[in-house]
Amino acid sequence: MIGNQYIVFWTIFRKEVTRFFRIWQQAFIPPIITSTLYFIIFGEVLGRKIGEIDNHSYLAFIVPGLVIMQVIISSYTNSVFSFFGEKFSRSIEEVIKSSAETYSILLGYIVASALRGIISGLTVLIVALFFIKISFHNIAMMLLIAILSAILFSLMGLINGIYAKTWDDVSWVTSFVITPMSYLGGVFYSAKSLSPIWQKFSLINPIFYLVDSFRYASIGISTLNPYTTLAITIAIILAVWLLAMLTFTKFSQR
Fold this sequence. Notes:
Largest sheet: 2 strands, antiparallel
């Protein structure tokens, strides 16, 4: 039985990976172009005027946020568009009617989407190295946070894909929720520079925790305790995983 579920997982995972590598120009070139523009405009132009933040150049400060932002957006986008596309074409019904377990189906989509997110984030990091030399503080922790971020937003994308009824339902969350939360998650500024009210507002934004902990792992500075942030992130992932299992189970029983 376990072997059968592994086949289900591997089939979905391989299909998804093959799909986004087939359209690699759309999947990986836009993050490179966008991040290059960010580094030129924010890092080079504004960075000269802003100066240093916590003894780091402004460009070095924003690089971790831009990397984790791309991980989040790519993971979420792949998950939601892929699942809704199969729901829209009704091809997901064949999987549901098979002997596949819910967890093996979800893992196939989640791991593949997370992989795309990690690769996209890595491309941004490679681009950043052309602009600035970075001495990484904790590479293992960087990888862990990137993976957790990718898993969390792959799960959230999957849930959105399950609930979505039209392509507009898929697109508006990315444009009006994920992207604004990313910009308000401390990517371009330090939460310490905000007023007390806005600092408290930042604490309800989950992306703020991911950016802050990833920045600590990258360059060694953070607003919050990074290990507390890791624990919170893992707890959120477990809760969202249970929600995704419940949501998909209800969807498959319709």
